[in-house]
Design goal:
The complex is a heterodimer of chains A (272) and B (308). With 272 residues, chain A is mainly β. Helix content of chain A is 10%, strand content 28%. A 13-stranded mixed β-sheet of chain A has the order 5-1-6-8-9-10-11-12-13-14-17-16-15. A four-stranded mixed β-sheet of chain A has the order 4-3-2-7. In chain B, the strands form four sheets. In chain B, strands 3, 4, 5, 6, 8, 9, 10, 12, 13, 14, 17, 18 and 19 form a 13-stranded mixed β-sheet that branches. Classes of the chains: A mainly beta (272), B alpha+beta (308).
Chain lengths: 272, 308
């Protein structure tokens, strides 16, 4: 059984640690997949995968899940190769620590999606909660590679301490965007609430709409044309056409956060 | 129009005899760079500096020239540019020369950017080395799996891809045009290089694509490992043994480096035919090629096969 199709039979009634729903399943036989235990969160019980899902074959290196998976946390953790597709909403920590392959979520994710992402490509059609691409609790830096596309909105602290890779959010963001960002590229097509890039050390935040900046922590905006902006524009998907257009023209660039080294930058399309 | 003679028949192009000999060429390491700038003037200025003093590995360390001009639609950053090909005897020498030239001729030139023009596993560092000029203010971005360095400079940012690829290639494809007069042979030479210039994957690194100083291996002077090839100096006619008569007044050699042997052979054919058709038998006594007896270079381009 090299590819798997998992359809949720019923709501589990409890919150589940679903980190074992990962690319490791590809290496297991049918019986082992069905016996794969999911731990309950806050309890000692485990539930075998086969009790919760109808399981059948899928194309090689494809794991497909369907159902309301909001009680399933950590789906796709450590995903390293192959294609993960989820039809329906998921819980926290979707694709945490992923290092390769692709993941597509036709639904929304709760908090800490793509935390500590290291590689691969994640597409989320719906919204995400707080701490997108953030570090594991207690870690210094967050996402260190790969790319994330969120077609909906993002909660607070998107890109918190991200160090490498690219996050593209087409919708709006709550406060704390790019908080303590270490490096990488964070692009937001919608509006961003609150101060953007607070305590960012390096990295680039690209905003499709005006936002708030600390006047004392960022330089005054300067108009410029950057070759790197053109290269970024050429890589954006069609649905980010307005940002791509902005990047191909002159942009306004601020440097900061001056209280944290000042080597980060925020680009906007207008002087605002 | 090239005749297809048997082994015993003379090889002739446009009435000009082609000697049954071969050009001896060598294995080299090569890379391609894409240089862009704000407008065509700055592209040309930077490219001219980058490829300057890059005619022969004998003393330049590298053979380098513009392969072709690129339109904005063909470059990574949507600006006018050129593709540059560079050849050296080893990967180490290529790395050294490219880093020096990129640092002194591209980084220094207003508005330029430098990109990889080849894909491959063996790498030649570009921005990976030059980034240190940024003195800590440099930053990098990985876009589409490729790393680019951004170095702050006085007109904005110097954008430079981290590295380009290096491939095995061929250097030293050649042919010699034996002219009845200096004017005629120069005319033939221009026809050759104009015909070769649009070809992909090849360069003619000498000034104007041609050299007059065809060399032999060794010298009477111990310090020199190459010296003038007196057998092809018409001014020494009667003094040394020469493979042509006194009707030859001047000779030029077209030297071709290419990414593949096939591209070198094709360029030789295109160049020889263009020269012969331009001036005809009234201009050229013959065409031959330079070799070292076949003992030094692995690639032998026999003129009868090249033109076959």
């Amino acid at each position: 059984m090299n590819g798997l199709n998992l359809r949720l039979k019923h709501d589990p009634g409890v919150e589940l640690d679903a980190r074992s729903i990962s690319s490791e399943l590809f290496a297991l036989g049918p019986d082992d997949v069905r016996a794969r235990p999911l731990k309950t969160i806050g309890g000692r019980a485990t539930i075998p995968l086969g009790e919760l899902f109808d399981i059948d074959d899928a194309p090689p290196q494809h794991l497909q899940l369907a159902g309301d998976l909001r009680r399933f946390h950590g789906i796709g953790t450590g995903w390293s190769a192959g294609a993960l597709r989820v039809d329906g909403p998921v819980g926290d920590a979707f694709c945490s620590g992923m290092s390769g392959g692709t993941a597509t979520l036709a639904g929304s994710a709760r908090s800490r999606a793509c935390q500590q992402l290291r590689g691969g490509s994640v597409t989320i059609d719906g919204n995400v909660g707080d701490d997108l691409g953030a570090p594991y609790v207690g870690r210094v830096s967050g996402m260190s590679g790969g790319s994330v596309l969120v077609r909906g909105t993002a909660g607070r602290y998107a890109g918190f301490r991200m160090r490498r890779g690219t996050i593209l959010i087409l919708g709006d963001c709550e406060g704390g965007l790019g908080l303590e960002m270490v490096a990488g590229t964070l692009i937001v097509g919608g509006s961003a609430k609150g101060e953007v890039g607070a305590s960012m050390n390096r990295g680039t935040i690209i905003l499709g709409h005006p936002a708030e900046f600390s006047e004392i922590c960022f330089t005054r905006p300067r108009e410029c044309r950057l070759g790197i902006a053109r290269l970024i524009a050429d890589q954006l998907p069609e649905e980010a056409a307005s940002i791509a257009k902005m990047l191909r023209g002159p942009i306004w660039r601020r440097l900061g956060d001056l209280s944290a080294g000042g080597k980060g930058e925020i680009w906007t399309g207008v002087n605002a | 129009m090239t005749s297809r003679p048997t082994e015993s028949e003379p090889l002739v192009v446009a009435g000009i005899p082609i000697e049954r000999t071969f050009a001896e060429a060598f294995d080299m390491k090569a890379t391609r760079l894409i240089l862009t700038a704000h407008d065509r003037q700055w592209v040309s200025e930077s490219a001219a500096a980058m490829v300057g003093f890059g005619t022969s590995i004998i003393a330049c360390g590298i053979e380098i020239a513009v392969e072709r001009e690129l339109t904005p639609e063909e470059t990574p950053d949507g600006r006018p540019g050129v593709a540059i090909l560079a050849f050296a005897v080893s990967g180490k020498e290529l790395d050294k020369q490219i880093a020096r030239r990129a640092g002194q001729c591209v980084l220094t030139c207003p508005t330029t950017a430098l990109f990889a023009g080849l894909e491959g596993t063996a790498k030649v560092p570009l921005g990976k080395t030059l980034r240190y000029f940024g003195d800590g203010y440099q930053s990098s971005k990985v876009i589409g799996g490729r790393r680019y360095w951004r170095i702050p400079v006085m007109d904005g940012e110097f954008l430079c891809e981290a590295e380009t690829a290096r491939v095995d290639a061929v250097g030293g494809g050649n042919f010699l045009l034996l002219g009845r007069s200096l004017d005629r042979v120069l005319d033939a030479c221009r026809a050759s290089t104009e015909a070769i210039r649009p070809l992909a994957g090849v360069i003619t690194p000498f000034p104007g694509g041609a050299t007059r100083s065809g060399s032999k291996v060794g010298s009477k002077y111990k310090a020199l490992f190459a010296s003038t090839n007196e057998a092809y100096c018409p001014s020494l006619h009667g003094l040394v043994n020469q493979p042509f008569g006194d009707e030859v007044e001047a000779i030029v050699e077209i030297v071709i480096d290419g990414m593949t042997p096939q591209q070198v052979a094709h360029a030789m054919r295109v160049g020889i035919e263009a020269a012969c058709h331009r001036v005809g038998p009234a201009g050229l006594v013959g065409v031959t090629a330079g070799n070292y007896g076949g003992k030094l270079g692995r690639h032998h381009f026999h003129l009868q096969e090249v033109l076959g």
